[in-house]
Amino acid sequence: MEHLNPHAPERYAAFVAAAGDAVLGLDFDGTLAPIVDDPTLARIHPDAAAAVLAVAGRLRAVAVVTGRPVAQALQLGALEELADALAEQGRELFVLGQYGNERWRSTRRSVVSPPTPPGVNAYSAALPDALRAAGAESAYVEDKGLAVAVHTRRLPDATAAYARLLPVLTELAAAHGLTVEPGRQVIEVRGGETHKGEAVHLIAAELGAQGFCFIGDDLGDVEAFRAVAALRDAGAAGLLVCSGSEEQPALRELADVLVPGPDGVVAFLHQLAADLGAPAH
Ligand SMILES: O=P(O)(O)OC[C@H]1O[C@H](O[C@H]2O[C@H](CO)[C@@H](O)[C@H](O)[C@H]2O)[C@H](O)[C@@H](O)[C@@H]1O
Rounded distance, CA 183 to CA 185, Å? Predict the structure, then answer.
C-alpha cells in the first residue's frame, strides 16, 4: 500500500482504533471485481470474499456500494454466500445498488427499489439513433432498469468513441431530465440526485458508525469519498483507499492510500486484518 498524503498513516491508525464501530465500504467493479471487457462476465476476485471475512470480524459492518443493480451484484459477487459467512461472525452485509437507489441488507434479504424514473424509457427509445449519429451503433447498451449504460470498451477505438458520445448522451439525458454518470469506458444515464455519498451517510447514520473506510476506483466513487471526508471532518475516523488503475487516476487525488487494483485491495484487507489482530481466516 502506498500512502498518498502525509495524513495517511494517522488516518489508517485512527481507523484501526475505531474499527469495532466502523464500516468497510467497497465498490464492486474495479475494486472487488477485476475489470473485464464484457460487463456480464465480471466476477468477484477469487480471493476477495476470504479477505473481507478476514477483516470483518473486527468491524461493525461491511457495505458493497455499487452502480450495479443489487440483484446483479449479489449474483456476480456471490454476495449472499458472503452474507451467510458474515452472519456466522455476527456481522451484517449491506448492498447499496444503482448508486444508492436500491438497498439490500443481509438481515432482510429483499431489494428496496424505487420505480423507474420518468424519462428513462424515452431516453432508451432515442438511444439507437443517437449512437448511430455518433458512429457508435455497436456500443453495448446495458439496461439497468433504473438507468441505461452505454459501454465503449469493446468498440474499435474505445477512448475516441467515449469522447464523441459523452457530449451527445449528456445532451440527450438533459432533454429527458436525467443525470449522466461517467465511468470507466461507460456513460450511464439515470434519474434522481442519489449518489454513493448518500449511501455512505445512510449506513453511517443507521449504525452510528465512528469510522468509515471506503475503497473505490472510479468517478462514481467520488461522492462516497467526499462523504467519508465529511464524516472525518465531523470527528469520525475516515480512511480513503483508491483501487488504482491507469485508466482512471482521478480518485488518487482524494485518497489516502493507493493499492494496485483488486489484487491490491485483497492484499490491503489482509494487511488491515493483521493490524487489527483479527484471527487468521
Ligand atoms: O460502482 P461500480 O461497482 O464500480 O459499478 C460501475 C459500473 O461498473 C460496470 O462497468 C464497469 O465494469 C465492467 C466489467 O468489468 C467494464 O466492462 C466496464 O467498462 C466498466 O465501466 C457495470 O457494467 C455498470 O453497470 C456499473 O454501473
Answer: 6
C-alpha grid cell, residue 180: 449522466
pTM over 0.80: yes
Q: The complex's ipTM?
A: 0.99
Pairing of strands 179-183, 147-151: unpaired
Minimal-distance CA residue to ligand 1 atom 20 = 184
Instruction: Tell me the pLDDT tens digit for each residue of 103-148.
Output: 999 999 999 999 998 999 999 999 999 999 999 999 999 999 999 9
> Hey, which of 29, 36, 65 would you mutate to test ligand 1's pocket, going by the most ligand atoms within 8 Å of its Cβ?
29
C-alpha cell at 106: 443481509
DSSP annotation string for 50-114: HHHHHHHTTSSEEEEE-SS-HHHHHHHTTHHHHHHHHHHTT-EEEEEEGGGTEEEETTT---B-P
Ligand 1: residues whose CB is within 6 Å?
27-30, 35-37, 39, 42, 66-68, 142, 144, 149, 151, 153, 183-186, 188, 218, 220
